[in-house]
Design brief:
By secondary structure, this protein is an alpha/beta fold. The protein folds into two domains: 239 residues, Rossmann fold, CATH 3.40.50.10540; 82 residues, formyl-coa transferase, domain 3. It has 18 helices and eleven strands. Helix 7 packs across helix 8. The longest helix has 22 residues. The chain is elongated, with a radius of gyration of 25 Å.
């Protein structure tokens, strides 16, 4: 495999990634970025998101490409006895197994935790599900938006009187991949310390509930039920997007000192000196008045007039960037959030970088594998000769 010159943190760690779609594959990609040998195991039909739009000019799915770089690709039929034999040969050489089968399907295929723990006591087994490993819904399938709805996130997202709104990106899937990465790293550290914690269980549901954050505590301990506020939020004023003469500008005054600086920057001395607006609680009660005055003023000039004034006053503010603006921004480039990976034909592909850095590592590696691209190579490593590989293919095991 193509690697960075420097030894990477997870060099020597082998991951068998039989997960599909986004959450599990994203976790596997993070491990590959950090140097692990991640073997992407797919059915002969391939991961379902290989066929999802939008497609690259080459016909590859952008969805698949976004979460599978740095991996080697193997096709394997886990319903075939010889396919399962190869799978167990892989596990014998592995440190981590990553899968997102439903619990009942995992048991049927022989990849559930109980069966594998006895056979591979040192193997870290990470299971990703939609609704969690326990409870009456453990075998229910689900996707990102389903869990945004189920876990209450959609109920607090959108305009006050509008229809339900999902977050624009698959934020629960991607966050679950990060959670799985953290869980696996914890389990590997536990193994290194001689402890026996090998099971890692994560789910879209648990991630979504955890991401309710302080909204959850507000309900549990103060009986405060949040409601939709569009770009704003129910307990802070002003904290929302305001339309300028040309585009929206998000303005955030999260405390009373910032509120006073905001008023000074916008020359709204009457609001600053109004004793009925001195605290955030008071401004929340007079939200319409505060928002109305600021909106009226900001509409008179373009965003690039107001933003420098607010920045000089140390008031957090940002225009609403489109994706082309994000990926052209110097801050994106400076933090290596745009990386270039090499493809087998010598061309390159631009991708989103990793959201954390370890030393100087940027995570750039090789492009996602084509379906079964490394099947022969991996089987050879498992001591299958050419005749054995041909027989496995003839039988439909790989």
């Amino acid at each position: 495999m193509e690697k960075n010159q420097e030894a990477l943190p997870l060099d020597g760690v082998r991951v068998i990634d039989i997960s599909r779609v986004l959450a599990g594959p994203y976790c596997g990609q993070l491990m590959a970025d950090m140097g692990a040998d991640v073997i992407k195991v797919e059915s002969p039909q391939g991961d379902e998101n290989r066929r999802w739009s939008p497609l690259l000019p080459s016909g590859e799915s952008c969805n698949f490409a976004s979460v599978n770089r740095g991996k080697r690709g193997l096709t394997l039929n886990l319903t075939h006895p010889r396919g399962r034999e190869v799978f167990h040969q892989l596990l014998a050489s592995a440190d981590v197994l990553l899968h997102n089968f439903l619990p009942s399907t995992a048991a049927k295929l022989g990849v559930d935790i109980v069966q594998l723990e006895a056979q591979y006591p040192d193997l870290v087994i990470c299971s990703l599900t939609a609704f969690g490993a326990e409870g009456p819904l453990r075998d229910r399938p689900g996707y990102d938006s389903v869990l945004q709805a189920f876990a209450g996130l959609m109920a607090i997202t959108g305009e006050p009187d509008g229809a339900p709104v999902r977050a624009g990106s698959s934020i629960i899937d991607m966050a679950t991949g990060l959670v799985a990465f953290g869980g696996i790293m914890t389990a590997l550290y536990s193994r290194l310390a001689g402890k026996k914690r090998r099971r890692v269980s994560v789910s879209l549901f648990e991630t979504a509930v955890a991401m309710l954050g302080y909204h959850g505590t507000a309900w549990l301990e103060a009986s405060v039920l949040p409601h939709r506020e569009g770009s704003g939020i129910w307990h802070l004023v002003p904290y929302q997007a305001f339309m300028c003469s040309d585009q929206y500008l998000f303005v955030a005054a999260l405390n009373d000192a910032t509120w006073r600086r905001l008023c000074d920057a916008l020359e709204l001395a009457d609001l600053r000196d109004d004793p009925t607006l001195a605290t955030n609680e008071q401004r929340v009660h007079r939200r319409d008045h505060v928002v109305g005055r600021i909106s009226q003023l900001l509409r008179t000039r373009p965003a690039n007039h107001w933003q420098p004034l607010l920045e000089r006053a140390h008031v957090p503010a940002s225009p609403l960037h489109t994706l082309d603006q994000v990926f052209e921004h110097e801050q994106t480039l400076a933090n290596h959030m745009l990386v270039t990976v090499s493809r087998g034909d010598g061309s390159t592909m631009r991708q989103i970088g990793i959201p954390f850095k370890v030393g100087e590592l940027t995570g750039a590696s090789i492009a996602p594998p084509t379906l079964g691209q490394h099947t022969d190579e991996i089987l050879a490593e498992l001591r299958h000769d050419a005749a054995s590989v041909a027989a496995l293919k003839q039988d439909g095991a790989v």
